[in-house]
Specification:
With 259 residues, this protein is α+β, with helices and mostly antiparallel strands. Helices cover 27% and strands 21% of the residues.
């Protein structure tokens, strides 16, 4: 398997370098777009609207339109928008799993009854709500069969698309660590998790990436260069784990007192 992202997990002051792999694969049939008259393949070309000529991939850039023209963005500009989030899986808090609403699942679909279906809709909705159970269902959408769970979100039925068992990839190829963890290290890690555990406040988490990227665009439009802040993502050595965990606990306690 090929990794799709390299970076680090930030756990307090502990930095854990990781590679990210896709944990699932799509079983959807690979369908080509064809001309119905002769079944010839439909091709897409990247054409310059001024010259009408095809443009090579290496000559294509991304730009943000302003009143005076375009601000061209390079790969480093996207990373600069939030260097840490581009390179780090930052654990900000631990919450109880039961506090996460079903609607936050990856692919939720709300269900609305059609004409004359209101009563039966409400009957199933109330039955699911009272039993607190999920219905397992399959359905076809966009030429693909989907496995799903039918449940309730507030006052509406919601369908969550999940994976078939054979779509989950085998992780046996990954080189997983066999290092032994001392009891005192585990105890310290549990204490750190306990310190970070809090009620889940959905509104607390904001997507700041686009705002930061806009700031970079504004700066570039004025000829200014965004200062690069060096980010330390060096791995935490095994023999330094206890010290980092203790420092993380102390840092969290100080932040808690300050707030």
């Amino acid at each position: 398997m090929r990794s799709i992202w390299n970076g680090s997990i930030s756990f307090g002051l502990v930095s854990i370098p990781v590679k990210l792999y896709s944990g699932s694969e799509d079983r959807k049939l690979d369908l080509d777009m064809l001309d119905k008259h002769d079944n010839a393949h439909i091709r897409y070309k990247r054409v310059n609207e001024n010259t009408g000529k095809e443009v090579a991939w290496e000559d294509i850039v991304k730009g943000y339109k302003t009143d005076t023209g375009y601000v061209i963005l390079e790969d480093e500009d996207f990373e600069l928008a939030n260097l840490k989030k581009s390179k780090t899986i930052d654990i900000e808090a631990f919450i109880e799993e039961k506090e996460v609403a079903d609607v936050l699942f990856k692919k939720p679909y709300f269900l609305e009854p059609q004409k004359e279906g209101g009563k039966s809709y409400n009957l199933l909705l109330q039955a699911l709500k009272k039993t607190k159970k999920l219905g397992v269902a399959t359905f076809v959408m966009r030429q693909k069969e989907n496995l799903s769970l039918l449940g309730i979100y507030k006052d509406v039925m919601v369908l969550h698309v999940i994976r078939f068992a054979d779509e989950i990839r085998d992780y046996g190829e990954l080189k997983l660590p066999k290092d032994k963890v001392a009891d005192k290290e585990l105890k310290m890690a549990l204490s750190l998790i306990d310190q970070y555990t809090e009620p889940f406040e959905f509104e607390k988490f904001k997507d700041v990436y686009n705002n930061q990227l806009l700031e970079i665009i504004k700066a570039k439009s004025k000829g200014k260069k965004t200062k690069v802040v060096k980010l330390d993502t060096s791995p935490t050595p095994a023999d330094d784990l206890m010290a980092k965990l203790k420092a993380s606990l102390e840092s969290k306690k100080k932040k808690g007192k300050a707030s």
